[in-house]
Structures are given as C-alpha cells and as structure tokens.
Amino acid sequence: xxxxxxxxxxxxxxxxSSHGPTEPGTGAEEISSLTxxxxxxxxxxxxxxIIKTPFLYPSEDSTAPPPPILTPVQSTKYDSLLSTVAxxxxxxxxxxxxxxxxPITDAEQMWLTRECLLRxxxxxxxxxxxATKRLLATLVxxxxxxxxxxxxxxxxxxxxxxxQVIFGWDVATRPCLYLNPGRQNxxxxxxxVQHLVFMLERTIDLMGPGQETLAxxxxxxxxxxxxxxxxxxxxxxxxxxxxxxxLGKALVINVHWLVGTFFKLIxxxxxxxxxxxxxxxxxxxxxxxxxxxxxxxxxxxxxxxxHDVYWPAMVALTARxxxxxxxxxxxxxxxxxxxxxxxxxxxEKGLGGGEDAKAEKKAVEAGExxxxxxxxx
Length: 377
Prior knowledge:
Helix content: 40-55%
Structural class: alpha/beta
Number of helices: 15
C-alpha cells in the first residue's frame, strides 16, 4: 500500500475541487477523480497498471536546484529593466517596420514575471538594451504567432498519434516533453511548428515553484528519416530567441546515422549553452526517475497513448494550472515583475503583499523556497 505524502494529498484535493464537474468519457475526469493514494501509487508503481493520463506532480525524490543569487550590480540592472518594461503601455502588433501599436494585455503583462526578465537579461549577458529589445521582440512574436488564440482543438489531430507527450518530471523536477518523430502523421507544415510551441507552453504550465526549465526527450527509433534542416533551424531560432533558458536537458536516443548527420549540420546554429545540454544515447534512468520515464525510453512507466483519454486530461490539467496562476496574479494586484514562486503557489504573498511580500521576495532571491512543499524554509 502506497505511503501518502500529506503535501501531495492536499494538492490533489485542491486539484479535484478546482476542476468541478467533468464530462464522462473525456479523460478529464481521470485527473479530477484521483485520490492522493492513487496519485502516489501511480507515481511510485507505474508498472502495476497501464497509464493513460499525465502525472500531477514530480516524484517526492526529485529536487529542483536553487536559483542563482544576484549580485548587487545584477540587482540594480534588474530593477532598471523592470522599470522599463513596467512602463510599456502599448506594443507593436507585428515585427514589420511602422506597425501599429495596441495596448499591452493582461496576459502579456502577467508573462513579464521577475524570473522571465532575469532569463532574458542573463541570456543577453546582462546587457540591458539587448534584454529590452529581446523581450519586446518576443511579445511581438507571440502576437504574430497568435499564441494566445491557438486552441487544443486546433492541434488535436496533429497530436492524435502521440508524437508529442507531456509526462512526468525528471530528477530536477523539470516536466518532461517527449518527442516521437516515428509517429509523425502529417506532412511538413507551419502547423507542426505551432503544435510544438503549443506543447512547450503546456509543459511550462506544469513547472512547479522554483523550476524554470523543461526536459526534452527525443526517440528516433521508429523514425525512417532524419529531421528537415530548414524546419529544425526554425525551431532552434524560436527556442533560442523566445524561450531563453527554458531548456534544462535535451536527451536524444536511438541516434541512427541520418540523425547524427543532421545534428552535425545544425551544430553551428546551436547556441553553445544549449549545446552543453544535449545528451545522446545515454542511460535516461540517470536523468529521469524510472517510474516517471516511459518504457520506450528505458523506464518503468507503462504508458500507452490513447488520444481520446490523454489529450482532454492533459488539456484540463494545464488549463487549470493556468487559471490558478491567473487568479493569483489578479489577487496580487496584476504586477509586472511578479514572482513566479507566488504565481505557482510556492509562496503566499506576491509583490502586492506589502512587508510580508518583501520578506518572501528575499526568500525567493536566496533560494529559500521549499519546492516540494511550496513554502518558505
């Protein structure tokens, strides 16, 4: 009989109550009907039954690394960047010259968290003009890519074979996004790239307090051909330009000669920092707890992709996480530069919480947030 972590029990209870009624047969009811014991059991003994829906939380044995502590100079630069982006009231509707501007939306302001600003300024080597330019460029790109308008229904057919799966977390509590090129079911198109971006966003939804990166796992075992260089360069550009410091690990297995040749071709276009995160044909059990690692990748999780069950369950779970974050952002006063630890439920007060919030901000900066229990140490 599984031992129930009281923190997981509380979280699952919240998850159940927050979902409300669910439609029978949609798969969403699987998420809302799980008991804490069932969740822990499925996380700890995934071989006991077939799994068709995402896990709710990381393994209790996984631990997120502490965030880097800012120097006084870096803190000053961050404050200056925050002051700049907080003053934005309108942004361009497109990246073309002389594009009209429209008011910045709530969703766009909520995206501009403290950690988001820090990711961009670190990726810009602490150059404030470069970080400012990159942040604005991403906001415009998200508008051009109609990122906030793409729906799960729009991508449902694209994912009907399970060519992309969000499932489990790695040893550092990064949510895992599995790519299965051998299950490709559509001709090459822009929609394929949009689908990947949609799944990246859903993976980010599942990041817990103190975690800013994801793990990408790619299995080329059933892929007859290597990736297309042009499309791969487009994806690389999106990741490096608009998702800086979001990739924690990229674990690639079953690399046949076509795939090896492909990676040699695109290697010059890969940022050196990103290149360091790529691992080829290694034992993935060293990076992902076996009960969170799919069997096809060398793990113990007996997961079978059933689109009619998995897709609505994943969509419902990530939608609820986004709703919770939006509710916290509104309660916190709709602050630009809000703490992601607050939005993710890791601390009780946001930037709008007065003196209590200042104390929690210092705790977040010092890495003193308990990433499992969601509280200050």
